[in-house]
Amino acid sequence: MKLSQMYIPTLKEDPANADVVSHKLMLRSGMMRKLGSGIYTFLPLGQRVINKFQAIVKEEMNNSGAQEVLLPALQPAELWSESGRLENYGPELMRLNDRHEREFCLGPTHEEVITDLVRDEVRSYKDLPINLYQIQTKYRDEIRPRFGVLRSREFIMKDAYSFDIDEAGLEESYNDMYDAYERIFDRCGLEYRAVKADTGTIGGDDSHEFMVLADAGEDTVVYCDSCDYAANLELATAKVEAEKADEELEELELVDTPNSSTIAELMSELDLAAEKMIKAVLYENDEQVVLALVRGDYEVNEIKLSNLFDVVNIELAAEDKYEELDTVKGYTGPVNLDDVEVIADELVMKVVNGVTGANQREKHYLNVNPGRDFEVDQVADIRTVKEGETCPECGGTLEQTPGIEVGQVFKLGTKYSEALDATFLDENGKPQPLVMGCYGIGITRTIAAAIEQNHDDYGIKWPTALAPFTVHLLPLGGGDDVENKAQELYQTLNEAGVEVLLDDRNERAGVKFNDADLIGSPIRITIGSRSLSDGELEVKLRQSDEEMNIDADNSIAEIKELIANEIK
Q1: What is the CA radius of gyration of the chain?
Q2: Which stretch is the leader sequence (predicted)?
Q3: How far, in Å, are 57, 68, 160, 332, 438 from residue 64 at the CA level?
Q4: pTM score, whole prediction
Q5: Do 143 and 118 contact (CB within 8 A), yes or no?
Q6: Is residue 155 domain-shared with residue 262, that is, in the same domain?
Q7: 285: which residues sit within 8 A by CB, 6+ positions away?
Q8: Residue 150 and residue 452: Cα distance in Å, rounded?
Q9: Residue 468 forms part of a structural domain
Q10: Helix or strand or coil: residue 376?
Q11: What's phi and psi for 200, nearest 5 deg?
Q12: Domain range holding 63?
């Protein structure tokens, strides 16, 4: 393509209200424009990248045996009521009514729709397994869209759904998709990790997220420095190594602690380490009130706590709950607190002569000991792990790094098939629920994540597999020799199947160089009168910033070799 004929409106300055690198560069390079909060129009350059990534995804999905379909974005609300998710999904579900006041939603995901399709078509175990996928726009009413397409209200996603006769079949389908995802992200040249993850509102028994490692990531990847263990911070665990201190149990003591409602204030007031503190946090769900206990140097992991009670959400208790339980926010503790279920983290049970709230304003108990001074209903891992803890699998050291979730695979089991009565007849002619898995990749999110991982101060540094153009030609200076060589090279590369962008604009060299760096094609070839008179072309590799000269007369062969090396 010739740049003079393309709609690529680049910007010199960072746009206002663009906070992360990918958002800035996608706007500055002319890939997209904002229509509304969390809603973007993709321009030709951005659409080329989307097409490149979708082609990789489709090829690997097809190779894995999945078959492409296209499901409606507009979904009847009664289908979501049937699955039980119409209310459980929460306010992110975009709802609307038609002229007859029938309720619909715009699909954030398609478990209900695909299950409805298959339950009407699949009759026998002989029809299974099957795996159906689509690439489609999804909708989520984000409370605060931000970071461009990393968290938007409308986005492109690939979602696949497998149907099997049993758990063994699901395991095979799950592994096939897991392997396909690794091939997809490997081909894109991304640094990523597959980590154990929470199933969230999708549900199911097991899940892995694929995280692109980047500073802008809203998630945290916990990984071991010695083995393959990796998990989202929401689910990460650590080996409990703390031993109960060998000290005499002291008598429980009530003390005044004015203006000490936080752990930090309490540490200063009592001159004790956080490891001596028992932090008590009051939570509630629709069915019960829970007091979660963690050691003072940790935080309660609300995802782990929710999973413990098998609820989608568990919230901090409202103010009236404190009054109802005769306690005080900031001074709550498990000693003499009735009508509440007490869940203690494993490390809390190792505390000897600890400190906790006394359920009275500005008062705490000293020398608190679990089992003697209060009873625990359940001991469980409910803390958020910290960097430097011990790996639960090999004893190595846990480290943390930011990550951007770009894909997730789930073992759904029979969650949706049972709710929607999707069955098949087994070998004995008896109806059995379909065993399901689902597998998503954020198309637009992965593109943004690739930019977060591949950029510098001047612009994007595209991996070759995702680049809108592989080669960017920059003829500089006047003269027929430069113009003729540029046109010759442009035509020959096109005929060779190389995606090339020719900057044929009548612009200064500085403008052309800046736009080339901003757009980020892997190979930039500069054709200038001085180098051409020496029989050479100037080449710059965008990823490595390596510069070299190549023979002008043998340029095609050398360029093809460079492309092959860049793809590797």
Answers
A1: 29
A2: none
A3: 11, 12, 11, 54, 14
A4: 0.89
A5: no
A6: no
A7: 309, 311, 313, 314, 315
A8: 10
A9: yes
A10: coil
A11: 55, -145
A12: 32-237+400-452
| 391 lies in some domain | no
The pLDDT assigned to 202 comes to 55
* Tens digit of each residue's pLDDT (9 = 90 or more) over 114-150: 999 999 999 999 999 999 999 999 999 999 999 999 9
Same domain, 499 and 545: yes
Separation between Cα atoms, residue 479 and residue 217, nearest integer Å: 48
- For 257, phi then psi, to 5°, come to -135, 70
Residue 175 covered by a domain: yes
Q: Locate 139 and state its tokens.
A: 């909708």
Q: How many domains does the chain have?
A: 3
Enter the tokens of residue 493.
């590369």
Please report the DSSP string for 82-127 in residue order.
Answer: HHTHHHHT-TTSEEEE-TT--EEEE-S--HHHHHHHHHTT--BGGG
Residue at token pair 């060589």: 485
**CATH code of the domain covering residue 501:** 3.40.50.800
CATH code: domain of residue 320? 3.90.960.10
The single-letter code of the amino acid at 391 is C
**C-alpha–C-alpha distance, residues 567 and 494, integer Å:** 18
Residue 243 domain-assigned?
no
DSSP state of 370: B
Domain limit, last residue, from 389, 422, 452: 452
Judgement on whether residues 440 and 346 belong to the same structural domain of the protein:
no
Helix H segments across 350-468?
Answer: 415-419, 443-453
Looking at the structure, do residues 478 and 559 belong to the same domain, yes or no? yes
Name 133's bridge partners: 68, 160
pLDDT in tens, 14-56: 998 898 999 999 999 999 999 999 999 999 999 999 999 999 9
According to DSSP, the residues that pair with 224 across neighbouring strands are 398
In sequence order, what are the beta bridge partners of 364? Answer: 255, 357
Rounded Cα distance between 275 and 217, Å, is 30
**What residue ranges of the chain have pLDDT lower than 50?**
none
Return the CATH number at 186: 3.30.930.10
Distances (CA, A) of 301 to 113, 222, 277, 345: 33, 14, 17, 10
Do residue 348 and residue 261 come from a single domain? Answer: yes
Helices (H), 427-479: 443-453
